[in-house]
## 1
Amino acid sequence: MIAEVIVDITNSEVDKVFDYKVGNLNVEAGSRVSVPFGNRKIEGLVISLKEKSELSDSKIKEVAEVLDDFPALTNECLSLVNYISDKYKVSKAAAIRLFLPAEMRRGRVSEKQVEFVLFNEDIAFEDGLKLIKASAKKQIAAYFELNDRKKLRAAKLRADYGNSAVKGLLDKGLVNISKVRVCRLPYSEMLSQNKNVNLMPAQERAISSVNDTDKTVTLLHGVTGSGKTEVYLELIKQVIQSGKTAIMLVPEISLTPQMFKQLRGRFNELCAIIHSGLSAGERFDEWWRLRSGEAKIAIGARSAVFAPLENVGIIIIDEEHDGSYESESTPRYSTMDIALQRAIHNDCKVVIGSATPSVESYMLAKKGEYNLIKMPERINKRPLPEVIVADMRQEIRRGNNSFFSSALKEELQSTLQSGNQAIIFLNRRGFSQQVMCRECGYVAKCTTCDVSLNYHRAGDMLKCHYCGTNYKMLTACPECGSVHLNLIGTGTQKIVDELIKLFPNARIARMDNDTTRNKEGHYKILQAFASHNADILVGTQMIAKGHDFPHVTLVGILDADMSLYFSDYRSSERTFQLLTQVAGRSGRADDKGKVVLQTYSPSNPVLRYAMNYDYEGFFEREIALRKATDFPPFALIIRIMIEATEEQDAVDTLKEVFFALKEVHENERQQFLFFNKMKSPIKRLKNKFRYQVLMRIKPNNEELRKRIYEVALACKNDKSIITIEENPSNLS
Ligand code: ADP
Ligand code: ZN
Ligand code: ZN
């Protein structure tokens, strides 16, 4: 037998399949092996076995060692490796890495084993007893206990009866020692914490709809607090009862510990967590529990889509609109894409849920490609929070220059007085700055792209990140002529300082990227707030996600329009989603909730739709705009980024890529909606010069898409790096 092995080396030059003789080792497709490579030994993965090699026998070396006693990758995972490396044009070694916990490579983790002492059943108890001297009281007592229990932890036995008693029994062959693998079980305090509830009719209907539809994907569009979680839990329960397994994806597990709590609390050890915040050993053990079939439910952020489960019965993607489902490092896979591949392979359903579905998903649902379920009401018909709009332009005219409108101050006051909690949300994304008119709220936009311009200090100019056009910095507002132009951007600390002045007795917690570099930090702040150890939580995007804080009755959104003007074609969509999600944190239990939404542009249609909870209206407007401007889902944006330490190298490669693609462009002009080369908005990053070719092509043209990848990647050289992104949410 010959094993075809992918060796674990990042260098793409060796992304080749190597043949090795198997000898009499127990090697399967998917096994991790150690193989001789050059004059050293390295790790590799067997992707298939074959009878014969095309190479002459003397040239083929032998597999040195099989690293695990089970194949690490299932057949399904192996076929996904091929799919990913072909679709995203990455090496197979890089694709394989997605499926293995990092700890597993280079033997950085060891299984935790515990010694057990086992009663030897081959010798009858009475016969055994005769072999022990009557004076060896402790040996006899230990032997009695082992006869009763059959198996005891060696450490415990030694502690109770002494080392020599155990040794005595061993020497006489009355007991055996065996090592048993035990798994470290993270978050065990959450076990059995979640009780079953009686489902509401809307939840029952949703579950039947998923089971009855013949469509693979179901989109569950349920407002915040409509009880989507119980729908997921019931679907998982049914799948487990039928002997299958389940994958549950959440945007960012450390920010949404509640979903994990619910699953662990309901399904106990059957549920394994895939989470970068775990210790190396825990991570490996949870992976192993899934691989060995001991655990049947995987929950985690996007990487959990690679969970080593067999016989998958359902894949659930919660908060499907969330940007974290797009990978930001190579391979830049789309989680939904992988989920669909797995669904096809396992013949199972995919359920995606959100209060604010992505425009792409909702369009597919409306077209009938996805099954669409709506849950338009909150549990127990609790009302959605009332939205109070505060026009910050008027506040300024009235002489209020603080961050807080008078409405928000009043509402905060009464919330604190009634002993409830409040969330103050700052709408911030990225670090780019926009120019805004303080009098009328106008924001400088690109004339052809309908995205806002970014201010560049270097050169004091405005730049469109989509088409590369530069504009002179404005001296006056083109709408109202005012010269009061502002660059927008403030930090959370300033907000907290002002809050302390206003409410000296309130306990204030703050959560943003500055306060919490590590993920455990996020969890702690959220826990503290959940157990009412703080009255006000101030934070950015990361507090918007699916938290269920029952005592929160007020949400203040300081700058609702802020994210409208980021240079992302999705900025309207992101704003709508954010506002709806943050508003949804208010009034989730018995007390009614309120939202104060502060804005400089109260008549902006996106804000109006958000404050009226009108998803449908928002969607219709947005999809029409996308169509008119040739943006996704009516186009596929492809960005080819070229980075090099020497500027000239980047420019040279850029030219090469551009001219190679120009040929493709000229042959298929009608398939291109946009095509150009330019410097990147951030010209130099981490000591590298960055240039890019940016294009928009008609969607669903897989042939052209692959062609572009191939042509661009063929220009690879050792002086520059080429990376390709699709529909990037950040073009800086
Ligand atoms: P969503 O995920 O749609 O925002 P959740 O799943 O968090 O909503 O549910 C909102 C609230 O309603 C939660 O506090 C949850 O415990 C409660 N809930 C959900 N389903 C039921 C039910 N069938 N009976 C009683 N309470 C429920
Ligand atoms: Zn103006
Ligand atoms: Zn433009």
Note: The radius of gyration is 30 Å.
## 2
Amino acid sequence: MCGIVGYTGRDQAAPILLDGLSRLEYRGYDSAGLAVRDGSAPAEVVKALGKLYHLADKTDQGRALPGTCGIGHTRWATHGDPSMVNAHPHVSGNCSGSGSGPVESDVVGVHNGIIENFTELKEKLLRHGYTFYSDTDTEVAVKLVDYYYKKYKIGPVDAITRTMVRVRGSYALALMFRDYPDEIFVARKDSPLVIGTSEGASFLASDVPAILKFTRQVYYIGNLQVGRIRPGEVLFYDLNGDEVQLPLTEITWDTAAAEKDGYEHFMLKEIHEQPRAVRDTLNSLIRDGAVDLSATGLTDDILRGIRQIDIAACGSAWHVSVAAQYVIEDLAGVPVRVELASEYRYRRIPSSPDTLVIVISQSGETADSLAALRVAKERGALTLAVVNVIGSTIAREADHTLYTLAGPEIAVATTKAYSAQLIAMDALAVRLALVRGAITEEKSGELIAALQAIPDQISRVLEEKQRLQWFSSKIANTHDIFFIGRGLDYAISLEGSLKMKEISYIHSEAYAAGELKHGTISLIEQNTLVIGVLTQSSLFEKTLSNMLECKSRGAYLMGLTTNGNFSVEDSVNFTVYVPKTDEHFIASLAIVPLQLLGYYTSVNRGLDVDKPRNLAKSVTVE
Ligand code: G6P
């Protein structure tokens, strides 16, 4: 993970770098650091532990660090604990304990990614007289560049490409060389990196929002490419050191979407943006009353030829996949296999051109999901990316791309991106079902009408938020929560449980309700909270029985069901209703109270809702 930024131009770099890092903090917040240079003077490094405001305070909001060229980093620790000495930037020479101060080194750099063979490279460098002050793989990478730079007396670009040939793993690297004032050199493999230019200035960042305030003209540097960044001018090279031309892309969306807009937290704002995110995504996929996938390039012929669908994803996107599995199989009759991307990539699942492998990812950069996509392509499958971030690596590498239109999501715990993914997968299921003759035109029309009603229905669920706020205050000191459900209700439970645990730090598990009796029920004690999701007619009674089995062993029960469908009030302690819709699409409504429950529980426990400990939003490491 980690976020990197860079600036070279006429203005003071440090405030610009801090501004950029503030928009990348979702990528990590264990420590942060800047290296800024003033003309040909050596770079000055400042680091601070913890969230970015410590670094901003330490540098007087950047004013205490003069210079017009610099790089910055916000860290999510991988190699080496979150300490001052392990914080970036790293230098090619020696470094004092705090790592801050003027840099008497030839190379200084920041890195996002993981250098997998760093131990072997470190040994090589030790043999050549280098010493190491940190536990990081980044220090090794910076020193390896320095080694080639000096050994062969070659320029920065060639020193970097030689390093890239030796290094295994992933990286977005930004480096400054003492001999090249006002220039930043970057290299990329499998970690996101975007370069922006404007009149007299250039920028780099792990993600577009970090530079959008300053420019809309960006280059997406390719894998295994190097960039030479000067004020207002950028040159790109391939691994041979030959110059390559990259297209300049204009970003058309706005930064306003990345502001809090009066809400206390980004998560609450994003929960409330769900009707809009779902409506926009749906509108982009529906034309004249029918699902239209032409923007993705998936023709009806292609859809008709599919024999098997595999879906690979991580985290909440995997939960969307589990839900989509039920919907696609039930509506379209196509077999669906759902895999965690981190598992899929190492399995030998046979694929052929009639297998559609779908990779779902908000960021479009998750390392395991990207690897799953590449493995699927190697095996000859047809690939579809369902991605939120436009221009991201997964979106660019897939054969077909379906963009969800949730807009930038800042809170680490996903809400609106999850909902946009769900609705996109539902729309895909309806089209698949229609073109394969599993449903009639009339049924397709009914299903689409149901999908189109969902944004307003989500708004109605949001109107009930006070009840969830009240209930969360009752459960704020609970130690364990079990979410249970069957079928689609199990998929909803998985996401509800994740929302709860990731931001409230309350231990929580989701179980397929029928599995409880095979072990988990022994964990039920007096007042253990069991949340049952009961939206599926054919499974309602069975899940309710499982809940009552828990109640008879002391559990405190919450039931989540649909309005007027089922009566659970007599059986459970607290009931939450959501409006009725076609049962295939209920996850879009049932998830909202569970998001609110996680949110308010975190608030009640006084936690940092938007930046939960140990997590990051974009996971670009394995
Ligand atoms: C992280 C985020 C989750 C997200 C998962 C997959 O763990 O905190 O919210 O679901 O990564 O991310 P992606 O960007 O691939 O959807």
Note: Residues 314-317, 361-363, 366, 369, 412, 414, 615, 617-619 surround 6-O-phosphono-alpha-D-glucopyranose (CB under 6 Å).
